[in-house]
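Sample entry copied in:
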Amino acid sequence: MTVFPALRRISAAIKPVFSVYCHGGLASVRGLRTSAVSFNPDPSNPDYVVTREQLKAMLASHSVQLFDIRNRDEFQAGHIAGSVNIPLDQLEESLKLSSKTFEKCFKVKAPKKEDDNIVFHCQRGRRSLTALDIAWRLGFSRQGHYAGGYSEWAELEKQ
């Protein structure tokens, strides 16, 4: 059958390598992106929304894995202390890294799919909803997002 040789040529051509910026270099991940199944998060659902007060308590007790998914320049201009910067366009590939590679790249323990202390945040809460969707598609089911984002955090910390 002539279908199989065609499939072999297609599969040979589809060998993407995703690069993820690591402190001091790039890490590569082989594989295809996950399916387009959508989480369609409801911003009013309290099951995954983390309030400022909750986040402050989690940070104080060192019981949070806080990921800032803004771009590097936004992160460098100001960020929540204790957060780890993984830009949204690198999040999927970063969450696919082995634990050892993730820890080498980001200098923190790699999140596990069953962890219930993963929190994403961005500037105003929209990109962190996308981060929830990405994590959900990868099998993470207990993550949350700080809906107020860095803009709320910075504004309220000034007061």
Remarks:
- Residues 1-18, 28-38 have pLDDT under 50 and may be disordered.
- The helical segments are 3-13, 52-60, 72-77, 88-95, 99-106, 126-137, 149-158.
- The first helix runs from residue 3 to 13.
- The beta strands are 17-22, 25-30, 49-50, 65-68, 84-85, 118-121, 144-146.
